[in-house]
Amino acid sequence: MSVTSQAPVTAVIEDALQRYRAGLGAAATLVAAQRPEPPPVPFELPDPSPEFTRFGSVAQLGLTTIAERTHLLDLTRNPGTRTTKTLASLFMVARAVSHIRRTGHRLLLLTPTSGNKGTALRDAVARAYASGLATPDELRIVVIAPEASRAKLRGGPLSDDPDTDAANPVGLATVDRPADVKELAAGAAASSTGRLAAETGFHLWYTLDLDNYRIADASRAFVEAELMPITTDSPPRLHAHAVSSAYGLLGYHLGHRVLAETTDTGLPRPARHPGLFLIQQLATPDMVLSLLRIEHPPYTRRADGRWTQESTAAFPAVTDDPHEVLDATFYTRKPVTSAQLDPLVAQHGGGGIVVSRHECLEHFDQVRALAATGGIDITRDPAQIREWSLVKALTGILVARERRLIDRNVDVVVHASGYYTDDLLPPLPTTRTHPVRTVDDVTGLLFAAAR
Question: Most buried one in 110, 193, 231, 283, CB count within 10 A?
Answer without folding.
Answer: 110
